[in-house]
């Protein structure tokens, strides 16, 4: 019996998914999948730092190669968000969206906007068969919004009139 990661995906499950996608199972691929399962929406640099805890000799190029091959095989999803390097996640079985805090950069998953993929129906398809709709909600998380609200209510001492 294989021990599960904190989020419940066993290494054997990742291995089976890799094999069914036509990929060879390697310790580097398993380590990258484990890193992204534990830290969704991570950048390649964040994945590298996490993977180096178990594979200290892994190179930057190896991590990029693994990310590319796993994304190409459909085992990872690459997120291309404004003002951010590419991010990756293992949640690929649905067409979910993302909410991004413009203050701290926190990213949260948001369920499909209308029910089932592609979640949105465009007014014009230009002859394309739409398969995925990618929506990014941007705003301030509660932690970032709280200081702004307090600052807005606190008078600036420079505004006080000397009498």
Molecular structure report:
It is a single chain. With 163 residues, the chain is an alpha+beta fold. The protein has two domains: 1-93, Arc Repressor Mutant, subunit A (Orthogonal Bundle); 94-156, 2-Layer Sandwich (Dna Ligase, domain 1), CATH 3.30.1490. The protein contains five helices and six strands, in the order ααβααβββββα. It has a three-stranded antiparallel β-sheet with strand order 1-3-2. A three-stranded mixed β-sheet has the order 5-4-6, with no helix packed on it. A hairpin with a 7-residue loop joins strand 2 and strand 3. The longest helix has 13 residues, at 60-72. The chain is globular, with a radius of gyration of 21 Å. Mean pLDDT is 83; it is low at 1-8.
Short key terms for the protein model shown above:
single chain, 163 residues, alpha+beta, Arc Repressor Mutant, subunit A, Dna Ligase, domain 1, 2 domains, three-stranded antiparallel sheet, three-stranded mixed sheet, globular, disordered N terminus
Architecture of the largest domain in CATH?
Answer: Orthogonal Bundle
Radius of gyration: 21 Å
Tally the helices: what do you get? 5
Class per helix and strand makeup: alpha+beta
What is the CATH topology of the largest domain?
Arc Repressor Mutant, subunit A
- Global morphology: globular
> Secondary-structure element sequence?
HHEHHEEEEEH
């Amino acid at each position: 019996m294989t021990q599960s990661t904190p989020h419940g995906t066993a290494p054997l499950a990742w291995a089976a998914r890799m094999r069914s996608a036509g990929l060879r199972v390697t310790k580097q691929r398993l380590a990258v999948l484990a890193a992204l399962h534990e830290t969704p929406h991570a950048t390649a640099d964040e994945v590298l730092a996490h993977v180096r805890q178990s594979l200290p000799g892994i190179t930057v190029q190896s991590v990029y190669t693994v990310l590319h091959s796993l994304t190409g095989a459909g085992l990872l999803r690459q997120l291309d968000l404004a003002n951010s390097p590419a991010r990756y996640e293992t949640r690929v079985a649905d067409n979910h969206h993302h909410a991004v805090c413009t203050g701290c950069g926190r990213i949260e998953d948001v369920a499909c906007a209308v029910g089932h993929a592609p979640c949105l129906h465009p007014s014009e398809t230009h002859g394309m068969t739409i398969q995925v709709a990618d929506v990014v909600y941007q705003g301030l998380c509660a932690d970032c919004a709280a200081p702004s609200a307090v600052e807005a209510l606190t008078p600036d001492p420079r505004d006080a009139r000397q009498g």
